[in-house]
Amino acid sequence: MATSATWRRVAERLSPAAGRTRGEWVTDCLLFALALLVGWVTASPSAYPEVGGWWWPWDIALGVLSSAAIWWTRRYPVAVGVLLIVPGAVSITAMVGALVAVYRMGLLAPIRWALLLTTLHVLAALPYHAVAPVPGMTWLVWLIVVPLMYALSLCIGLLGRARRQLIVGLREEAARDRERYEERLATTQRDERERIAREMHDVLAHRISLLSMHAGALEYRARSPHPPDPIELQESAGVIRQNAQGAVEDLRELLGLLRSDGELGAAAPQPRLTDLDRLLDDAAAAGQHVDFDSDARPERLRETTQRAAYRVVQEALTNARKHAPAAPVTVRLHQDRAQLTVTTSNPVPPGITRGDVPAQGNGLIGLEERVRIEGGSFRAGVEDGEFRLVAELPAGTR
């Protein structure tokens, strides 16, 4: 069985039709038919009186051999080129087969082998005119025509090779462009998801901190000797309900943006500096004391700069509610020709030292990345008994 399989693989490899496409089938059939037709036309003893009658059977046999060898020129161009040197030199009917072999060497074989074997074909074919002169053709014409025929066949093959290499190069370049495009697309989608995640972290952290503050205040009043009256209880519950509903809406928006099919949805309108009033009102409704002062001119700032400044203030208020619930917060926005400076500060609770201040969380890390992407600088830490956050953003115009 192993021997049978081995011989079958050898037969498949030696088959002239192995790996041939439909277009290659048509081309080889036409070339084979052309070689037989030219051989049949040229196999005329009366046209070549110098050729002895005893040689014509051999001439025709070599012509048939060279015509049949066309079927193997794709798989073995160098071997067939070597095989047809002698038939092409001594047989009139083998002319087309030899020229096709030279053409296929230019198309498929290593260039140095194609040039070498073509030269051998020419040198071997030139002496034929001395043995059997072609009627009506002088030596000068023979010395010009024979090299030109072989050179033309070789050049056509080399042009076909160049065309194939160009097509392959264009396909490879297109594949590389597609890979680069897909990589850029994946990077863009990842960056956009990270941006959305930072946005939603800021929004949800703000709302949940408001919920925590209201719920803590309500729990404290409920345990005190003077529990809240129904109206106060209703107002507190309403604030908690509104913020909880807002958190659910924000979470629904996040799930809508990050759909399971991998595509990014349409982003909701992003906050600007003009939305700071609503943010401060929410903080005041939660019982947070905010001292706010601003000389910023939003109409002269880019939207991304306004968004970054808004998130800085939002994160500062959220952190103050989490780590210093009763401390007042100071917010200052100052704009000059070069930059917009956002400064927030709140007193550190009594008994808290610099070493007790927690390390930067995801919120502050995200803020720092956002500010640096905008081309600004960011710092946060304890200074003179206060937790201070300073963001400097370039005041580029729209």
TrEMBL record:
<dbReference type="GO" id="GO:0016301">
    <property type="term" value="F:kinase activity"/>
</dbReference>
<keyword id="KW-0808">Transferase</keyword>
<keyword id="KW-0547">Nucleotide-binding</keyword>
<keyword id="KW-0812">Transmembrane</keyword>
<keyword id="KW-0597">Phosphoprotein</keyword>
<dbReference type="InterPro" id="IPR011712">
    <property type="entry name" value="Sig_transdc_His_kin_sub3_dim/P"/>
</dbReference>
<keyword id="KW-0902">Two-component regulatory system</keyword>
<dbReference type="InterPro" id="IPR036890">
    <property type="entry name" value="HATPase_C_sf"/>
</dbReference>
<feature type="transmembrane region" description="Helical">
    <location>
        <begin position="78"/>
        <end position="101"/>
    </location>
</feature>
<keyword id="KW-0067">ATP-binding</keyword>
<feature type="domain" description="Signal transduction histidine kinase subgroup 3 dimerisation and phosphoacceptor">
    <location>
        <begin position="192"/>
        <end position="261"/>
    </location>
</feature>
<feature type="transmembrane region" description="Helical">
    <location>
        <begin position="113"/>
        <end position="131"/>
    </location>
</feature>
<protein>
    <recommendedName>
        <fullName>histidine kinase</fullName>
        <ecNumber>2.7.13.3</ecNumber>
    </recommendedName>
</protein>
<keyword id="KW-0472">Membrane</keyword>
<dbReference type="InterPro" id="IPR050482">
    <property type="entry name" value="Sensor_HK_TwoCompSys"/>
</dbReference>
<dbReference type="Pfam" id="PF07730">
    <property type="entry name" value="HisKA_3"/>
</dbReference>
<feature type="transmembrane region" description="Helical">
    <location>
        <begin position="25"/>
        <end position="43"/>
    </location>
</feature>
<keyword id="KW-1133">Transmembrane helix</keyword>
<keyword id="KW-0418">Kinase</keyword>
<feature type="transmembrane region" description="Helical">
    <location>
        <begin position="55"/>
        <end position="72"/>
    </location>
</feature>
<feature type="transmembrane region" description="Helical">
    <location>
        <begin position="137"/>
        <end position="159"/>
    </location>
</feature>
